[in-house]
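[Q] Does anyone have a clean structure-token version of this?
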Amino acid sequence: MKARPIDRLSTLLERFRVRAHLFHAGALCGRTHLAAEPGRGFLHVLRGGELVVKHRARSGAPPRIELAEPTLLFYPRPVAHEFINAPGEGSNFVCATLDFEGGAAHPLVRALPPLLVLPLRSVQGLDHTLALLFAESERVRCGQRLLADRLFEVLVVQLLRWLLDHPAEAGLPAGLLTGLSHPKLARTLTALHERPGAVWSLQSMADTAGMSRSAFAAAFREWVGQTPAEYLLLWRVSIAQTLLRGGASLKSVGDQLGYASASSLSRAFTQAVGVSPRAWLRQ
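[A] Here you go.
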């Protein structure tokens, strides 16, 4: 029997949202510096022109990149960068900031490299969204900024879809997205995302994937870069952080996530984060 298709992204993005905000449309000339801010990334679409991009040492991104064709620049992490154009020969850009709910704890921020550079010709499925985005950026109309923000968010989802189908082509490291690209591991990861409070054992995770326990454990470590237990702990604690930040009590969060008591959640939280939930909230 053919495996039933699963939605690998919706629950993830419903629990940990990404908000986009258009901040530039048009030419950039000379030098433009974009600072790193906690919890904030960038998505730039180079429509035309040539461009040099520079990054600081030890940022995780290449020190210098030269672009000469329409390209997506996706910064999921806070990375300062500088655009350099010849004066008077500006490159044509549409740019948005990306605010990741939970900041550095956002699962996508943890899973993705500091920068993805993708020529538009290599990423199929973006044409219609980009056409609408470019049309909205070319002249001021009622609701322009709101619509452009939503189109950038659609673009992020479409880009993530493409990355799930082309992890090797995008050069993704082992992590959440490479795990979701694996047809069997994706079943377990999606189930963990949808039912974090269920009673999960290594055997039940392997059964969900349709694999033996040993094969599942080895494949999970290879593709996700963590053991299944480590991933489940971090997923639960990331959800706990979001709920606690929103004002939920430790007991109610523990009940939602399958912990027997508030103290059980507190111990798991401290194991993953290094400080207790109360200390983390004070910070």
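[Q] Thanks! Anything notable?
[A] Residues 10-170 form a domain with the Jelly Rolls fold (CATH 2.60.120.10).
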